[in-house]
Amino acid sequence: MPLSRVLSGNWETIRAGATAGGRRIDDCTSRARLRDNEDVTQAITTDPETMHGAPVFRGTRVPVRTLFDYLEGGDTLEDFLDGFPTVPRALALEALEEAKQLLLASG
User: Fold this and answer.
1) Burial class (CB in 10 A: 0-12, 13-18, 19+), 25
2) What's the number of domains the chain is made of?
3) Which is nearest to 63 in space by CA: 50, 54, 73?
4) How close are the terminal C-alpha atoms of the chain, in Å?
5) Pairing of strands 56-57, 44-45
6) Does residue 55 sit in helix, strand or coil?
7) Where in the sequence is the domain holding 89, given as residue range(s)?
8) Burial class, 101, CB count within 10 angstroms (exposed 0-12 / middle 13-18 / buried 19+)
9) Summary mean pLDDT of the chain
10) pTM of the entire structure?
11) CA-CA distance, 80 to 62, in Å (whole number)?
12) Which residue has the higher pLDDT, 94 or 36?
């Protein structure tokens, strides 16, 4: 299933009640475009020395792609968080929000 369909079909469920640092996740803004592969988003970072430059959740070595693989495979956000306890729920939600904004901006 394409990621855009996964996000559009599950977004409200994933996002319900989500906050990061006291702010609603939908108030968070992306500071750069992931497609430009810049190390400047709030939730996602890239570094050639970390996981060969793959985008990872900030402060972890967990590739963001893993979250999307879980969701595309039909798993829930909670399934992902159970498997990767170093990724806080708020950080995963913020990464999804950034991805959503990029998808909507490029469309």
Assistant:
1) buried
2) 1
3) 54
4) 18
5) antiparallel
6) coil
7) 3-106
8) middle
9) 74
10) 0.62
11) 11
12) 94
> Between 102 and 61, where is the model more confident?
61
Angle separating helix axes 3-15 and 89-106, nearest 10 degrees: 130
Whether 62 and 86 have beta carbons less than 8 Å apart is answered as yes
Average pLDDT, integer, range 23-27: 41
Give the domain CATH number at 11: 1.10.10.10
For 35-48, give one letter per residue: b (16+ CB within 10 A) or e: eeeeeebbbbbbee
Rounded Cα gap, residues 51 and 46, in angstroms: 9
CB–CB of 41/74 below 8 Å?
Answer: no
